[in-house]
Prepilin-type N-terminal cleavage/methylation domain-containing protein
Amino acid sequence: MCETIKKNQGFSLIEVIVAMVIIGIVGASFSSVVFTGSKASTSNKMKLEALMIAQDVLEEIRIQRDLSTNLETWRSTHFTLDNGQWKAIRTRDGIYFYDTILNLSDYNGNRMKEVIVEVIPQNGGQSVFLATRFRN
């Protein structure tokens, strides 16, 4: 009588190692994509926040202009002269977060004012600039 010997078929050590390497490569590339997306999202959020701060400053200047307020006086009460630049510190949750730089200058023979607002994130991100001109 012949006895049939059943062979237990399984994965060899090499097959297991190759599978682990492939899974590791796929996992590493996936985590890289997730990290890059998260970093871009944070950067965009900071740019949007800086843009909103700059828009707020421009809107406040327009309001003061419409109220016939002397803009230089208003600037000196809301901004501090620091190394030749008018700066204001913006905070978020009480943490020093943005520098806001305001430049007011005469334009077109003193008939217009040019306003440039620069918002600089403290984490070294990109600055945001907004500018406008209006009649005196």
Q: What stands out?
A: The CA atoms of residues 22 and 68 lie 70 Å apart. The chain has a mean pLDDT of 80.
